Amino acid sequence: MRFWKKFTARRLDPNDIRLVGEMPLEYDARDELLPFVPASLDAAQDNFGQGDGQIRIEDTLWGVYEVGSSYEMHLRFEEGSLSPERFQAHLEGIRQAAEQYFGFPVRIEIVGLYAAHLEPTAA
Q1: How many domains does the chain have?
Q2: pTM score, two decimals?
Q3: Is residue 21 left, alpha or beta, with left meaning phi > 0 and alpha meaning psi from -120 to 50?
Q4: CA nearest 94: which of 117, 53, 62?
Q5: To the nearest 10°, the Cα dihedral for 44, 70, 31, 16?
Q6: Which pLDDT score, from 0 to 100, does residue 2 have?
Q7: Residue 113's pLDDT is what?
Q8: 48 phi/psi in degrees, rounded to 5
């Protein structure tokens, strides 16, 4: 059974990468975040609690944070180094995995310091 996830406006960062759904992004807050990572990437859950957490994808660390809108989750590239092309590929893979998990179109909005270097992914 899924529970509607309550979102709170905390840990917002102007450089967060927004994962935005056409419908509310509902998931059980006790679930792990690994369903949002493509199976083709080497990933491990670093930690998780109350809807927030960190995922190691290859040699990088990504934060996943709840926000003030039930239509959004925020991603934060927290550690590691990737070329812009590889960074974009990671984001596209996360978007596709999220679409598969939620069952409806999801897009990535790139804002802040990443916006000048990357193109938004569209559903």
Answers
A1: 1
A2: 0.76
A3: beta
A4: 62
A5: 20
A6: 38
A7: 60
A8: -160, 140
